[in-house]
Design brief:
Largest sheet: 5 strands, parallel
Shape: globular
CATH architecture of one domain: 2-Layer Sandwich
Strand content: 15-25%
CATH class of one domain: Alpha Beta
Radius of gyration: 21 Å
Oligomer: single chain
Keywords: 4Fe-4S, Amino-acid biosynthesis, Branched-chain amino acid biosynthesis, Iron, Iron-sulfur, Leucine biosynthesis, Lyase, Metal-binding
CATH superfamily of one domain: Aconitase, domain 3
Bound molecules: 3-isopropylmalic acid, iron/sulfur cluster
Number of strands: 19
Catalytic activity: (2R,3S)-3-isopropylmalate = (2S)-2-isopropylmalate
Strand order of the largest sheet: 5-4-3-6-7
Family: Belongs to the aconitase/IPM isomerase family. LeuC type 1 subfamily.
Protein name: 3-isopropylmalate dehydratase large subunit
Function: Catalyzes the isomerization between 2-isopropylmalate and 3-isopropylmalate, via the formation of 2-isopropylmaleate.
Length: 473
């Protein structure tokens, strides 16, 4: 018998029951809840007269609909948004789950709050009614999104019905060049495998370049596993992970920490584990990248030119033509000639402190291009506070950026932060779908350092041309 992968180990440790056809009941350690996908789930419990099975394992925070302007205490204007946030507020209090309301400094994007507060730990199963739950896989946790009916199931039973996925290994060998970041890794992987490359798999990211990343960088990589089609993405925990976790408010303490650590150290894929699919990229070959189209797989090095539909095969030919029309681009145009009018730095992909440091390192002492609308939306109130303490906020303000409160914001435009038709944005988020940042809006995905560079020049820019010191995140 061959050894086990990290995914196999976490899975096996959580199976409550297995049917003959392989369907399993899995125990869930952490259930994260936001306002968009939970109202009907709580309503279901109420109608059935049920309680939340494990309120101590359930963490709720509003993020998608919250305003990020400094006057947000005024409340939410949009009725639908207001109703969702009010429902979460009521449900969290009625059902007694852990809750970070909108006026709590710990409020923020659910995938940033969980790790920050020490809710996310190695070896756990973590679910949330949100596709970017994969972020938590950075800790060596099995973390993925679930639908609203599953949210109700987990609330009621603390278990989830699941079938096991296959094992995929994505190895990034060697080291990254200066100016190349975790975002460039994760986009490049999707560029190589396509948005369906991970379908049916749980990905484990490994290799020297992954090992060298901070926890922030690892979260950026795992965050986009879902954009590559995978059920989840994870990274084996190591000293970097343990050091990040230790001392966080809800991490185990003292003897309990030591006991947990002993288990966490067994969480790696055995040398003789079986992989159903393996993808290898050389760290040295990864360039600072941007997306040109309307799918996260439309990735190219910033030094490249806009492709022609004829460069593709099959259904992608038509898709590329449609993407070019939507994006208002011409084949052969240099990517660095594409002018932008908006910059968004934030989201659960790149709204952590290292991301803000990387952007500020480029912006220090510089001004954004005249007429540019640029905003930084920290991923949580605590990220915001830390950035203020470190002087990063002042760098952003001096450069001409807006300095906002925490939330999802222009990542998906459920709050007033939206693009107008035809506006073009350099964004650090994870989806460039049509209309994602507002109807008719055009999105180019990239790293925080690249977004900062674009803010200065007013066009997509190779950050290496502006670098005084290497970007780290
Ligand atoms: C609103 C929510 C269900 C959605 C998701 O599942 O990812 C959102 O967070 C997104 O990024 O599109
Ligand atoms: S920041 Fe964006 S990707 Fe992340 S949870 Fe919010 S909307 Fe989804």
């Amino acid at each position: 018998m061959s050894g086990k992968t990290l995914y196999d180990k976490i899975w096996d440790a959580h199976v409550v029951q297995q049917d003959e056809d392989g369907t399993c009941l899995l125990y869930i350690d952490r259930h994260l809840v936001h306002e968009v996908t939970s109202p009907q789930a709580f309503e279901g419990l109420r109608l059935a007269g049920r309680k939340v099975r494990a309120p101590g394992r359930t963490i709720a925070v509003p993020d998608h609909n919250v305003p990020t302007t400094l006057d947000r205490a005024k409340g939410i204007e949009n009725e639908e948004s207001r109703i969702q946030v009010e429902a979460l507020d009521r449900n969290a209090r009625d059902f007694g789950v852990h809750y970070y309301p909108v006026d709590d400094v710990r409020q923020g994007i659910v995938h940033i709050v969980g790790p920050e507060q020490g809710w996310t730990l190695p070896g756990m199963t973590v679910v949330c009614g949100d596709s970017h739950t994969a972020t938590h896989g950075a800790f060596g946790a099995l973390a993925h999104g679930i639908g609203t009916s599953e949210v109700e199931h987990v609330l009621a039973t603390q278990t989830l019905i699941q079938k096991k996925s296959k094992n995929m290994k994505v190895e990034i060998t060697g080291q990254l060049a200066p100016g190349v970041t975790a975002k460039d890794i994760t986009l490049s992987v999707i560029g190589a495998t396509g948005t369906a490359g991970g379908t049916g798999y749980v990905i484990e990211y490994c290799g020297e370049a992954i090992r060298s990343l901070s926890m922030e960088g690892r979260m950026t990589v795992c965050n986009m596993a879902i954009e590559g089609g995978a059920r989840a993405g994870l990274i084996a925990p190591d000293e970097t992970t343990f050091a990040y976790v230790q001392g966080r408010p809800h991490a185990p303490k003292g003897a309990q920490f030591e006991a947990a650590l002993a288990w966490w150290k067994t969480l790696y894929s055995d040398d003789d584990a079986h992989w159903d699919k393996v993808v290898t990229l050389r760290g040295e070959d990864i360039a600072p990248v941007v997306t040109w189209g309307t799918s996260p797989e439309d990735v190219l090095p910033i030094t490249a030119a806009v492709p022609a539909p004829a460069d593709f095969k099959g259904g992608k030919v038509e898709a590329a033509q449609r993407a070019l029309d939507y994006m208002g681009l011409k084949p052969g145009q240099k990517l660095t000639d594409i002018a932008i009018d908006t910059v968004f730095i934030g989201s659960c992909t790149n709204g952590r402190i290292e991301d803000l440091r990387a952007a500020a390192a480029i912006l220090k002492g510089k001004k954004i291009k005249d007429g540019m609308r640029a905003m930084v939306v920290p991923g949580s109130g605590l990220v915001r506070a830390q950035a203020e303490e470190e002087g990063l906020a002042q760098i952003f303000l001096d450069a001409g950026f807006e300095w906002r409160l925490a939330g999802c914001s222009m990542c998906l435009a459920m709050n007033p932060d939206q693009l107008s038709p035809g506006e073009r944005c350099a964004a650090t988020s994870n989806r460039n779908f049509e209309g994602r940042q507002g109807k008719g809006g055009r999105t180019h995905l990239m790293s925080p350092a690249m977004a900062a560079a674009a803010a200065i020049t007013g066009r997509l820019t190779d950050v290496r041309d502006l670098m005084t010191e290497p970007a780290q995140a």
